[in-house]
Amino acid sequence: MATKILVTGGTGYIGSHTTVELQKAGYEVVIIDNLSNSSIEVLDGIEAITGIRPAFVQGDVCCIETLRRLFNEHPGIKGIINFAASKAVGESVEKPLLYYRNNLNSLMNLLECMPEFGVKGIVFSSSCTVYGEPDVNPIDETAPIKPATSPYGNTKQISEEIITDYITSGAPIKSIILRYFNPVGAHPSALIGELPNGVPNNLVPYLTQTAAGIRGQLTVFGDDYDTPDGSCIRDFIDVVDLAKAHVKAMHRMLDKEDTDAIEIFNLGTGRGLSVLELIESFERSTGVKVPYKIGPRRAGDIEKIWAIPDKANTVLGWKAEMPIDDTMRNAWAWQCRLAEKK
Ligand code: UD1
Question: What is the pTM of this model?
Fold first, then answer.
């Protein structure tokens, strides 16, 4: 029988791509999502790719009764991947309680239910934001955790601590914490991708919407950083590569006996790319020009950060493989498909 996995936030950007990879690897997926930042049609996209429609519960992970009902109605769930969280840095500064409530209550509810319902492991979506502005680059998992610069970032740090404290207390569960660098791109089929609500905050959706004429111009936030071309440097990782790492993590947690109860992995490519280099990659790979201007720095931005992904490469047996030009082409194909659907 297929191993059953609960994917919270499974109709979201990373959740939907991960659902596809889990199904392709033979797992049975149950999704819970409150659709606050995603659409039910994502299930059609998943089904069109894999031929399997995942079980879906519309509900909020912040409600423990909803969760208990889910575990009763879908018995035998062995693992959880927790994507259900709010992720806009700016919004978190304006609405801190919303972020603390949403991101922390949901996690604590899941942890509480795990022993009750015999769930063995949870993969948690953390972020490289926990490293703040690194003293040196690239960084591995032993780099110091810096004070968070936003409530969003703080929820990631606190979540990591909650999981660690719970497991240290003797809770009979395992966890793998994945610290994502900058996930970008879309599924090569263009059947699923990122669906930002309103004006995007993140670079790639803003870039593709500008290329599509939805936004007039992209603003590059600062060209006076201490980097070769003056723009910020990030480790842009393809969302399908990222999704595949979750499958490896789930397999390791559930099927290997001799692993630590809690493990942390950086998920990045090991390659730092500047904002201007990313725009160049987009233009080169799609042949589409992106109107952009240089603007002032964005408050709270980190100058440069990229990963040493060696631990994930060797221990998880996972490596980011998609060339950035292909990732940009996929992001563009998805943007074009969204325009067709309108
Ligand atoms: C941020 C968060 C990260 C979070 C991610 C997802 C921090 C420091 N980073 O990543 O933890 O997981 O969002 O929401 O909290 N840029 C432009 N013009 C734009 C948009 C972005 O130049 O219109 C630049 C930014 O200045 C930055 C880079 O592009 O240098 C990437 O920005 P973005 O996509 O927003 O991601 P991060 O800020 O790196």
Answer: 0.97
Atom from ligand 1 closest to the CA of residue 301 = 8
Catalytic residue numbers, as ranges: 152
Residue spans of the domains in the chain: they are 4-184+236-267, 203-234+271-307+318-335
Write down the pLDDT at residue 1: 87
Confirm or reject CATH 3.30.300.10 for domain 4-184+236-267, answering yes or no.
no
- Cα of 6 vs centre of ligand 1, distance in Å, is 28
Closest by CA to 250, choosing from 93, 162, 121, 151, is: 121
| CB-CB contact of 333 with 186 (8 Å) | yes
pLDDT in tens, 297-320: 998 899 999 999 999 999 999 999
What is the predicted pLDDT for the residue at 340? 86
182 lines ligand 1 (CB under 6 A): yes
Provide the Cα torsion 17, 247, 153, 119; round to 10°.
Answer: 110
Distance 298 CA to ligand 1 centre (A): 9
**CATH code for residues 203-234+271-307+318-335:** 3.90.25.10
User: Position 323: which residue type?
Assistant: P
Pocket test for ligand 1, best of 86, 93, 275, 306 (most atoms within 8 A of CB): 275
